[in-house]
Amino acid sequence: MRLLRLKVEQLRRFRQPVEIRDLDAGINLFTGPNESGKSTLVRAIRAAFFERYKSSSVEDLQPWGDSAAAPTVELEFEWQGKRWKLVKSFLKRKRCDVSVDGVAFSGEEAEDKLADLLGFEFPGRGASRPEHWGIPGLLWIEQGAGHEIHKPVEHAGSHLKSVLGSSLGEVTSSAGDALIARITKERARLLTATGRPTGDFATALEAHERLEREHADLQGRIRQYRQQVDRLGQLRDEQARDDGERIWEAYRQQARAAEVRLVEVLAWQREQERDQQALQVCQASVRTSLDLLGRFEAQRKDLHKRAADRDVAAQALAAQEARRPAVERALADARAAFEAARVAVRLAREQQQRKDLARELEQADAELAGLDQALARARELHEALLRQRGLRQTLHIDAKALARLRKAEDELARLAIRQEAVATRLQFDLREPGAVTLAGEPLHGQGERLLLEPAEIVLGQLGSLRILPGGDDIADLVRKRQGLDDDRASLLSVLGVASLAAADIRHEQCRELDGTIRRDESVLESLAPEGLEALAGRRQLKQARREELARLIAALPEPQQGGLSVSRAEVQLDGAGESLKAAEAAEAGFRSALLLATQALESARSEWSRLDGELQGADRRQHEKLAAEQLLELRANENRLEQALRERQKQIDLANPGVLRQDVERFTRSADAAEKAAEQRRLELERLKASLEALGAEGLEERSAELDVELARAVRRKDELGRRAGALDLLLVRLTDHRLQLTRQLQAPLQRHLNRYLQLLFPEASLSVDEALVPEILVRQGLDGEERGRFAELSFGAREQMGLISRLAYADLLREAGRPTLIILDDALVHSDVERLGNMKRVLFDAAQRHQILLFSCHPDSWRDLGVAPRDVAGLGMPAAPSP
Amino acid sequence: MPRFLHTADWQIGRQYARFAPEDALALAEARLSAVERLADIAHQEAVDAVLVAGDVFDAQTVSDRTIRRLFNAMGAYAGPWVLIPGNHDAALAESVWTRARRLGAVAANVHLALSAQVMAFPERGFAVLPAPLTQRQTAADETAWFDHAVTAPGLVRVGLAHGSVQGVLAEGIDSPNPIAADRAGRAALDYLALGDWHGTRRIDARTWYSGTPEQDRFKANDPGNVLLVDIPAAGAEPKVEVRAVGRHPWIELEESLAVASDLERTIARLQALPELAVVDLSLAGELHLLGRQQLEAALSVAEARFRSLRTDLSRLRLQPTEDDLAALHADGYVGRVIAELREEQEGGNAELAREAMAILAALLLETQGQGETA
Predict the structure, then answer these.
(1) By the CB < 8 Å criterion, does B199 face chain A?
(2) Could you tell me the pTM of the whole model?
(3) CA A435 to chain centre
(4) B267 and B211 in a common domain
């Protein structure tokens, strides 16, 4: 379908006629600012088709304030080679004329023809509403409604489906969906969504299970009942049999018989025991007799032995006696030897004493001589000492006086020196001796004199000379010399000497004498430390001792030639002592041995005689004879008893009392058991009877039969419902499958077209449609893999884009089905970004290859690259616009 | 000249699991009412005794109430009843009989022959030789002792036993309790009244199975009778009259449907069956959808008329015709599902497919009906 020309008159903005010619088969872009009349054109086209020409609800078409206007739309289009012309006027001039290739239609007929062609409906009355718009409602997008797709598709639904249906050459089931709903409902009564039994079916299954359980239970009880009945019969049979036989009585009889026999055997056993005891007694007696006889025999043997012992002892004694003389002799010899040794020792000792005394005497003589000598010397010394001490006494000089003298001398010397020094020196040399005197003193030869005091020198015949020493202190010195000379003279006097030298000599003599005295005193001291008298005493004592010794020696015998030494004599004495001791011991041993032998002989003799006496007794013989006789008797008795025991034991063994005892026990127990069993059986019978009566009263088998009826019905019911549920399930699955299959077949071509456009927008994306052929889910390849988005949840812009793509796809479908398509977009895609818009332009350009598209926009810049020249709607109203 | 009513296999207490519970109950009740009718007949015919040849009770442990009801049902006849235990109610140590006695339900005129002893009724001129079963199953012939049983001279000797006559009832012998075929002759019996075989059957002139008085299985071997036996004199051949007493005949009907008229014929046959019958109908073949509606209507009518109607349609395939599909507007994918199911009715999933088909057809019919009425 291609719109060729559009003319509008007295319609809203366009009071004057406006005509658009030479519309392109593809895209026609109308631009203009708001209020320029784009929407008026769209409204005009929609009104021309959708509104009844008679409708009075289209006052909005009149120019504002012009109620006398008759809005008119004139359209020309081409479809399948035919040229259609529509002229429709509203309100003041209500008229509709359609001519198809010159064939004219008018009024409602004309309108219906258009509705059939484009696929829409008219309202019963009033203005046309979206639900009437059908296919054009889908393809003609009103301002701001591009994102809405669900409603338009729904409204176009029947037209679309019929179009698609016929194109597929297939019819849907008119009653199918209702049927599916019905079956779903029926199925839901029996099965849950997941296929589990529910409702009646579940109840039937439960009932069946319950009945099965009850049935099994009942069967069990019936089995039990039957078993009990059988047991009852069996017990009764047993009871009848046992009561008839009374088996326990037989057992008791047997037990009694065995017991009688056992008593008998037990009596034997007692006899046996008795004899056994008798045998033991007898055997003991035999042993006693044998012992007795044995003892007698032993005694006899003992007597012989004792006689022998006695003889041996006698011999031993005799032997001892024989030793006596030798022993005694030896003892006497030993004694004599000992005595001799003793005398020898005494003699030896006396000799020794004498020798010692003689030696001491010699020594005493020597000492006495020494003492005499010492005494003489000591007396000598003593005399000397007395003299020396006397001398010493005379020679004595005072040491202090001596010292003072020496000092005075020294002082005089020093004074002399000083006098000499100060003195007037008179030297002389004289050839005639004595001719000159000085102060009376002749001078001779050469000399020198010191003159301290006026001296007169007489020069012999010649006269005298007077010399007077000069100096002050000569006088003093002379005085001092005088003093000192006095002192010296005093001291010399005291000391009794003439000069100091004499004093010194005396002093020296004193010292020498002192030394002599000390030497003599020490000698005397060594000779007679205790003095002279003591020494004399000692000499007297020694003299006395010497005399005593001489006397002692004289008392002792003269020494003999060949005498033994003391030690030798003592050794001999020791040996003799030992010999004597041995001889004495031997003698003592001999005596005791003799005594023992004598005693042994005595005892042997007495033993023998005692035994002999006993054995020779008269009752002893009698006793022995009796014992032998008794033994014989006992032996016989023993044999008899043994025989009896053997025989009886054989009897007892044969009777076997152990087994007999067991028999008694066995038969008794059997009887007890049989009786007990009978009793238990009686009890069990009673119990069983009671149980059976109770169970029987329940009518188990009848109930079981009744239950069978119920169970069979439950099974039938369960099976029926199961079958029905299965069948419903099957039906539902089949119907749903087929329906789905069919829907897929319907959706396929639409899907194809959709995806074709979608690739231009989102590579590898797909948009699925639901059963109503409404876009449902957009699947895109995102960075993180597949992204799924419900159509309703997409952004406004994306919804608008998808909406447009869907519409184009529907248009493709319609075109394929041979239906007219015209696409009108009023201010579409205003919410798309530049990139998307660019892609959408490609989509539109592609669609325009197959469909005519009228695109109205107030954004001419956005559509500049659409490949068509825009028409400015604002310029349309201008009367000057000349048509080319 | 004694006259007996010979019956057996009452199977009191029997339940019928294969039927709906209400039918099963009615059939169980029918067995008791058969006994009542027997008592009436015995009374009317003034017989000398009623001989019951075993399996009086279906089981040992029937309820006390059932026991009492049975003995009550026998009340109309005051003469002697002679009952022997059969394999179902054998005289075990504890049995339905001991219970009946304990309950005091057994009337004085009812003689329970629980042991093999001659029961003489000299004032009525006969002696009964019973062969009661004392075990559930025996391998020995319990009637053997009849041969040597001594009865007073002049008394009619009547044997009463329960089991299988050897060599005669070849088919369907379920009881091992054997009975020699020539027992009547060997034991010089005037009549041998037998039980266990549920159909009426003459073994020889003196040996009969009476069969059960009320049929209890689909086996057409002449059940539902009682025997009226006249013995002119000891040694004389008995006269036996077979009298029908059953109420509920058991009928099995098998039909094959191929063409449309087959359905009509089947329905006609159903309608011809007697009322109170117990019917087992099984259909095979093919049926179109509308025919199925027709069948269901007919079955619904028949169900009300019979004591019990059981139908087995498992071998009946539902084959919608083009007309069916058109009538049901089964177009589009529904049509395809129907086509699939139609084919699957033959395969391994046949039962489910048939059921699914039936449901689908019913639903379509229903919606169509709504469509038409709307």
Answers:
(1) no
(2) 0.53
(3) 153
(4) no
